[in-house]
Amino acid sequence: MPGWNYAFSLSRKAVKATTLLGTVRLIEHRITQHNGRYVDHVANFPVPTADPADPLNWARWRKFSCLAVVSLYAFVTNFVSASLAPALPIWNLSFPQSPRPPEDLFNVLLLGLGNIFWVPLANVSGRRPIMVFSALTLLIATACGTTTSDFGRVLAIRVFQGLGSSASETVTPAIVGDMFFVHERGALYTASLASGSVVGGICGGYIAARLGWFALFEANAVLSGLTLLCAILLVPEMIYYRVSLCLPVQRNIPRTSRFQLRTPAPYLSLVSLPSMHMTVPSRFVGSIDQGPSLSWYQTPSSSDLSSPAPFRVSKVSKQNRSSRATSAITSERQAPFTFLRSLKFGMYRGNVLYQFKKPWFTRRLPATWIVMFQYGGLVGGVAVISSVGPLLLDLPPYHWGDNSGLLFIRALVGIVLGGLYTSVLADKRLKQIPVLLPSLAVATGGLLVFGFCAQNPGRYQWVGLEFAYGMVSFALTQVPSIWSSYLIDSYAQLANDCFVMICILRGIISFAWTFFVSQSVQRDGYLIPLGGFTVIMGVFSLLILPVIWMDKRMRIATARYVVGNQ
Questions:
Q1: Which of 9-18, 241-250, 555-564 is predicted most confidently?
Q2: Burial (Cβ within 10 Å: 0-12, 13-18, ≥19) of residue 23
Q3: How far is CA 390 from CA 92, 418, 453, 470, 476, in A?
Q4: Rg of the Cα trace of the chain?
Q5: Residue 64 phi, psi dihedral angles, 5° rounding
Q6: Which residues form a coiled coil (predicted)?
């Protein structure tokens, strides 16, 4: 099996000729003339089947309504999580017999660990039941907070709120990737994910101050209930197996002296050719006789150009028919995908123990670690600024008081600009990963700007504090959006497992940074800890360079892990 030595021993031509899972040709050259010129067309990838139940074939209204619901879920979960911190002073006023410091609730940052359970269960039972159940968990936990005045119970409620919210960062990105083509995936979901905590930070304190402590839980319960209702009605099951065939075309080339190949011929995959479409009857399944010395991710040698390998069509029994074969039936033989049909839940797929172990295998993929560090660093930076900033603006010479939450407004502006930047530049004609370089540089600089302005307070230094928060939020919108698309396209069904590990480390980094800065600020001031975070974030940002320069070689080296765990 090829590994790192094999991948980096290949020539540039051999690497270019190799077709991997996740290699997509988005711009297709078709013979179509428009105004006397030949025009390029955008290819649809993944290639949809003829089945109306295929999420790629759904009507536009169904796709966008489902996208709106998962975006609402991402917004609400972060709103609920962030709205309680600015309202904690109201707790001390409402229940003076049991005053509590804000640090008591920082353990909610570790509740991304709930994805250890949600993602394997989603792979076993489907995405729809897990999203509905997690939204139900969030609603019940929030509703319990509308009557309790015991802080220990509030902490228990926050634990279950985190459990019900954690699926918004793992299961829902997979839902977006399942129903949209590669060139259609934008930043609406991640913008909602990032803006929820910002809006919650602004509104939480005002709701509790004007309407009372319990009114905050009542407002969160209404939002959670709306999310649950929309998820039940508008989010169908997304997991759909498509028949994919891979034809080794070089084996059909006769080995004679008249035909000489200057460069190795790559494997021709029907999945990687958007212009080709094949429908296989449900009673048959195709298989290709490939020798053990040649697999789909290897570069063929001249010895492999032997006699043609037969393409066999084997008949399978009714007991062995699976959704893989059924998904290829033509549209004339398929029932329409009606609203009642969309209300059905997924089927049980078994292998529960294996699904729980599989996320830990993704640590062998370099991209998982890179996303872990970059996303975790950005979330940690936002957590530090959101915890330190309001307290700083409440001190002289600012004295913002109840208006300290207005710091989050600039973060909201950065999120909107980041979403527009991603939608405009990370489109169908540009490689998406290099688009992250300016954003990561801006976020790294934002941490340093915040440290300098916090260390040297002045009459107008609040402008720098807010601008720095917007700089970090600008990148926070793009990094999860673009990296999620990369993981889904490169690792297919393993993307969900990658999200699990990413959320675990993201929670650990954000908790560690927030805990460290609260101790270091009192001892060393603001510049030293924020300067240290700037250096760390700069190192995390530089990890993107190997992906830009050696992405394909890295995926060749780790291809055996991807194929073996689908």
A1: 9-18
A2: middle
A3: 18, 23, 14, 15, 20
A4: 26
A5: -75, -30
A6: none
CB-based contact 132:70 (threshold 8 Å): no
Taking every pair of Cα atoms in the chain, the longest distance, rounded to a whole number of angstroms, is 93
Instruction: Report DSSP state, residue 211.
Output: H
38: helix, strand or coil = strand
Which residue from 271, 277, 280, 272 is spatially nearest to 311, judged by alpha carbons? 280
Residue position matching structure tokens 């002073």: 89
| Distance in angstroms (rounded) separating the CA atoms of residues 328 and 365 | 31
- DSSP 8-state secondary structure symbol assigned to residue 28: E
- Angle in degrees, CA 79, 82, 87, rounded to 5: 115
Residue 102, judged by CB atoms within 10 A of its CB (0-12, 13-18, 19+), counts as middle
Task: Say if residue 108's pLDDT is above 60.
Answer: no
Instruction: Identify whether the C-beta of residue 173 lies closer than 8 Å to the C-beta of residue 86.
Output: no
- 49-63, 372-386, 504-518: range with lowest mean pLDDT: 504-518
Separation between Cα atoms, residue 305 and residue 281, nearest integer Å: 31
Question: How far apart, in whole angstroms, are the C-alpha atoms of residue 388 and residue 529?
Answer: 12
Ranges assigned E (strand) in 207-366: 246-247, 268-269, 284-288, 311-315
Retrieve residue 529's tokens: 């800890």
CA distance 449 to 461: 10
Which two structure tokens, joined as six digits, stand for 482?
Answer: 């673009």
Residue that has been written with the tokens 């993307």 in this structure: 495
d(CA 217, CA 153): 13
> For 11, which DSSP code?
-
10 Å CB burial of residue 199 (0-12, 13-18, 19+) is buried
The single-letter DSSP state of residue 163 is H
For the chain, how far is it from start to end, CA to CA, in angstroms?
Answer: 17
DSSP alpha helices (H): ranges in 394-524? 407-425, 436-455, 461-491, 495-524
Q: How many CB atoms lie within 10 A of CB 375?
A: 24
Q: Give the angle subtended at the CA of 252 by the CAs of 246 and 257, to the nearest 5°.
A: 145
- DSSP 8-state code for residue 29: E
Would you state the structure tokens that stand for residue 184, as one six-digit string? 């259609």
Q: What angle do CA 353, 134, 341 make, to 5 degrees?
A: 90
Query: What is the full DSSP assignment across 311-356?
Result: EEEEE--STT--HHHHTTS-GGGSPP--HHHHTPPPPP---HHHHH
Give per-residue pLDDT as tens, 65-98: 999 999 999 999 989 988 887 777 677 677 766 6
Contacts of 37 (CB under 8 A, 6+ apart): none
Phi-psi region of 126 (alpha: psi -120 to 50; beta: other; left: phi over 0): left
Separation in Å, CA 45 to CA 25, 190, 392, 475, 482: 8, 21, 49, 27, 16
- 324, 241 in Cβ contact below 8 A? yes
Task: Give pLDDT tens digits for 164-176.
Answer: 888 888 888 888 8
Lookup: tokens for 373: 């560090």
